[in-house]
Amino acid sequence: MKTPNKFQITTVLLNALVLACFALSVMAQEAPDVSPPPDGGYAGGNTAEGQKALLSLISGTYNNAIGLYSLLSLTTGSFNTGDGAATLLVNNANENTATGAGALLSNNAPRNTADGAFALFFNTTGVDNTAVGDRAMQNSTTGNENTAVGSGALFNNTTGNSNSAFGFDALFSNTAGNRNVAIGLGALGQNTTGNDNIALGYFSGSELTAGDNNIYIGNVGVANESNTIRIGDPAIHQTVIIGGIPAGGLAAILFNFNSGSVTIGAGGPVPFNQTALQVGTAITQTNSTTFTLNQDGVYRVTYTLRTALLSLLAETQVQVNGTGIGPTAALIAAGAPLNDQVTYPANAGDTVQVVVGGLALTLANGDNATINIDKVQ
Fold it and tell me: Residue 7: its pLDDT value, please?
């Protein structure tokens, strides 16, 4: 089934309106006149009230002009409403609504709505814009499909398209940025040309000037950054609790292993000489024997060593910054595995090693040592 287009829908609505007006006119002829009779009614379903309102009208229909110079230049446009001095002053397009002095004063494009003094004041050819609030989108000229709700919202927008601003001065400085969403007083207030940014909260993203693809929730952001998500104020918010994510943040994992027989002297660190599997950025491998923790949190270290049949009965322990923590694993028989696990709170910058103690330790041929370091909180 075909979907009716806008013109078909408009024709149906117009026919219904004409029939309704005819019925009302018949009723009016049969009923006593209102005394005094209403003024301002003109042919074509037009209404004008105020000095030079609808002054230039020729054939336009169903327009409503109230106030000094309201719809002054309209000749053939239809379905416009101007309520306030100089509303839609130069307009000759269709289906615009302007409420408030100077609203849509410069407009000559269809389907715009301005509610507030000087809202969309300079709009000329931009279409499908909605501005609600004193001076909302005041300087916009050719931008399309924008929505501004709040005094000063999108105030300086000129050519930007598809922006949404809700709140006093939201996206205030935006001139040519596109597809931004700002919700909250001053949100994205300094953004000028940045695209595809989202800000939620009081002054969220207010430091951003020209970056793209950022998301800010309760965070002022940073000028000119892109592709960044910032949630909360680090000076205020100390704990994050999100379902499925540990309280300390996103998980981080590092796994590595060693291959090839090696003898490690007493006091020496165990090597893990393969390419590490790393998830997240909280843990990195500095060299074959040393790992660095890049964030505060709680970490778990798990290791397993396969010893050679001729190895001495050494022992191993996890060391953080050169100091042993947790239990010591002692080799009770040559060729037996050595393994242990320790969980502990760590600080950013700490280093981790598995260190041999007592006597030298010889690892078996092949793959002979594995280590897992997990950030658990």
Answer: 43
Element (H, E) at 21: helix 6-30
Q: Is residue 165 part of a domain?
A: no
Query: What is the helix, strand, coil percentage profile of the chain, to 5?
Result: 5, 30, 60
Over residues 186-226, the pLDDT tens digits come to: 999 999 999 999 999 999 999 999 999 999 999 999 999 99
Residue 266 CA neighbour count, 13 Å, CB half: 8
Cα–Cα distances in angstroms (integers) from residue 137 to residues 57, 224, 257, in the given order: 28, 23, 61
Q: Work out the pLDDT band at 6, boundaries 50, 70, 90.
A: very low
Tell me the C-alpha distance between 354 and 245, whole Å: 29
The backbone torsions φ and ψ at residue 18, rounded to the nearest 5 degrees and listed phi first, read -65, -45
Which amino acid, one-letter code, is at 283?
I
Structure tokens at 239: 């704990």
85 alpha carbon, distance to own chain's centre:
38
Query: CA-to-CA distance for 197 and 227, rounded, in angstroms?
Result: 9
Is the confidence at residue 159, as pLDDT, over 90? yes
Residue 203: C-alpha distances to residues 132, 170, 199, 317 (Å): 20, 8, 8, 50
Residue indicated by tokens 């994205």: 188
pLDDT for 38 equals 66
Written as six digits, the tokens of 188 are 């994205």
Domain span at residue 371 reads 252-375
CB 210 within 8 A of CB 188: no
Nearest 5°: the CA angle 100, 17, 125 is 40
Asked whether residue 244 is assigned to any structural domain, the reply reads no
Alpha carbon 257 to its chain's center: 41
For the chain, the domain total comes to: 1
Per-residue pLDDT reduced to its tens digit, 225-274: 999 999 999 889 877 777 766 555 557 999 999 999 899 999 999 999 99
Residue 330 forms part of a structural domain: yes
- The CATH number of whichever domain residue 305 belongs to comes to 2.60.120.40
Six-digit token string for 286: 């500095």
